[in-house]
Amino acid sequence: MSKAEEKKDAWQGELMSSFKVGGQELKNRLALAPLTRAKTDASRLPNELMGTYYEQRASGGLLITEATAVSEQGFGWRNAPGIYTEEMAEGWKKIVDRVHANKGVIYLQLWHMGRQSHSSFHKTNEIVSASALAIEQGETTTANGEKVPFEVPRALRTDEIAGVVEQFRSAAALCKKAGFDGVEIHSANGYLVDQFLQSCSNKREDQYGGSKENRVRLLIEIIEAVSEVYPLNRIACRLSPQGSFGGMGSEDNYDMFTYIAKRLNRYNLAYVHVMDGVGFGFHGKDKKVTCMDIKKHFDGPIMANVGLTRDVAEGLVRSGAADLIAFGRLYISNPDLPERFRNDWPVEPEADYATWWQPDTHAKGYTDWPTYPASQKASK
Predict the structure, then answer these.
(1) How many angstroms separate the CA atoms of 135 and 158, rounded?
(2) Residue 293, pLDDT score
């Protein structure tokens, strides 16, 4: 088949059109969602296997790395990577260089786990959060891999919060040194920033608790601190108003998250990443917050996520509800997902849940997913 015939037969969806983020032209509107895969060893250093994983998926418009700890205090997922030492930055640079060599754009997701961590990971033998409230259901994993109930965190003192903000700024500086195009602040899924945002986990009585204005303060301070390193249009944040993961879900989430959108609209952010699907769990305590709800209050790009198919994603883009679409589970089992969408090639089923978080450095279930066979491409 000639190149002209291939182009004629290609799917012409808006999802495959270019889009500009942070002054950079993305080759399509697909993003690799941040996916914790736990492929480092005890050093928490990014490695060559991780480089292969991201390089394989570089045909997406934007790659967002797995959540990456901004500090020793913020760490808490066994075999996940960090970005708080020069050696970690050097490891990430090798990965960034491989993505850039394939004309990809890559952001790192900045992460502080807060109360979802376990004391065994920390020299202080404690975990911290907005308030001294443990996650009531489920289990966490210790540094030795043992499953145990969640612990009661220590509420951060008011005078400690500036130090947490500095952890994000310092990590962003290392991201810049590693060559990342931008950063995404992980303010979703019940991790530390989300613990401050939501009333179910924030019972503070200082300037970081109570009102909507106070609960969003930590996120705003982090954005402003990171903007000392990256321009605002290279900084994004992720929100999960529907999510129940990590014991989250509040009765005032609709009002809170639409308010957050209004506050974020004061900044020229790269995008706001909204997990408005319910495939990751729905708390059911308030009405759902959709991308369109956020879009009414935030003028910048919106990225949608959770459980989307190509055609549903296309509808979101065409309707104006979203500008970018992040795929996670499908992108695990289909490293060439953009090509499969564009050419109507078969899509492999989502990866088995049991393979998502295997704490080892083996390729199985990680980098051994095949691209669509060249022989079948030729006969298509």
Answers:
(1) 22
(2) 95
* Contact (Cβ atoms closer than 8 angstroms) between residue 196 and residue 218: yes
Residue-wise pLDDT for 82-105, tens only, equals 999 999 999 999 999 999 999 999
Give me the catalytic one of 53, 54, 191, 267.
191
- Residue range 3-379 forms a domain whose CATH class is alpha beta
DSSP, collapsed to helix, strand or coil, labels residue 377 as helix
Amino acid at 129: S
Mean pLDDT of 1-20: 73
User: Tokens 């549903």 label which residue?
Assistant: 312
Q: For residue 191, indicate whether it is catalytic.
A: yes
Closest CA to 117 of 64, 72, 180: 72
Angle between helices 217-226 and 161-178 (to 10 degrees): 40
pTM (global) more than 0.90: yes
pLDDT, position 232 = 98
Quote the CA–CA distance of 290 and 246 in Å, as a whole number: 20
| Beta strands 128-129; 106-111: pairing state | unpaired
Per-residue model confidence (pLDDT) at position 1: 42
Domain boundaries, the chain: 3-379
State the Cα–Cα distance between residues 12 and 174, nearest whole angstrom: 39
d(CA 91, CA 21): 25
Sequential DSSP letters for 183-212 = EEEE--TTSHHHHHH-TTT----STTSSSH
